[in-house]
Amino acid sequence: MHRPRRRFGQNFLTDAGILERMADTISPAPGEAVLEIGPGRGALTAPLLDRGAQVTAIEIDRDLAATLQQWPATQDGRLTVIEDDALAQPVANFRLAGAGPLRIVGNLPYNLSTPLLFHLTDDRDSVSDLHLLLQREVVERMAAEPGSRVYGRLSVMLQYRCQVDPLFDLPPTCFTPAPRVTSAFVRLRPQPTPPIPPLNERCLADIVAQAFGQRRKTLRNALASLLDAAAIEAAGVNPGDRAERIDLAGFGRLARVLGQSQTPPEA
């Protein structure tokens, strides 16, 4: 039996009822391409295969990957196991030739959840949806609204990229070893059309990072290196507000003003 490795943040989901509920929620169509991040011992892989999914599983732990590579499903092409770090390659690299966008599932290591969330949603055209198991606190941040104490950079950037739907919580007793936190299962659906008018996402990321990096400060002070008070007002935002009061539309307007300020004048 594989012993969980702390350096990989391994907490294996062992509750059979929860695993079936997750697989039913994902509900892959026969032959549908599913990219599984961190399959571990294959507890969710098996019910996905039972439902007809064609699974590509990325596992960083070489021992776990080697065990999965012995499964019969690898011989008939229903399961492909890749020993690698999920952060190492763009999601688009895992799309099957001629297949539609990927469905992504995974029990993400809690210590890497934020970089993985940004990485997995970078190329929205390659992804139809994501069903992820995360620390409940992270899911709360992902779905938070302006004014919430947990509303922040993750909330704004993910809600720009995706519709965020928390599904259900999982207590620590569902895992081996039991984590010290409650977990949550969440669905992300990439937005085919952004929920706010088109903008330079790099400008949005810069504005949001700067605003929440100094969240106790007003925007007048937090954004001073990017926009002055007049520019903030030109975006229809109060320079005296703090970041947690600004909704996605407000951050979008600030990003557009920043983009305009960075556009070189025509000759």
Q: What does the model show?
A:
The chain is an alpha/beta fold. It has two domains: 185 residues, Vaccinia Virus protein VP39 (Rossmann fold, 3-Layer(aba) Sandwich), CATH 3.40.50; 62 residues, Helicase, Ruva Protein, domain 3. It is 33% helix and 19% strand. The protein contains ten helices and nine strands. The chain has a seven-stranded mixed β-sheet. Strands 1-8 form a two-stranded antiparallel sheet. Helix 7 packs across helix 10. The protein is elongated, with a radius of gyration of 21 Å. It is found in: Cytoplasm. Pfam families: RrnaAD. It comes from Spiribacter salinus M19-40. Belongs to the class I-like SAM-binding methyltransferase superfamily. rRNA adenine N(6)-methyltransferase family. RsmA subfamily.
Please specify the SSE layout and strand pairing.
Layout: E1 12-13, H1 16-26, E2 33-37, H2 45-50, E3 54-59, H3 62-68, E4 79-83, E5 102-107, H4 113-120, E6 127-135, H5 136-143, H6 153-161, E7 162-170, E8 175-176, E9 183-190, H7 201-213, H8 219-222, H9 229-234, H10 248-262
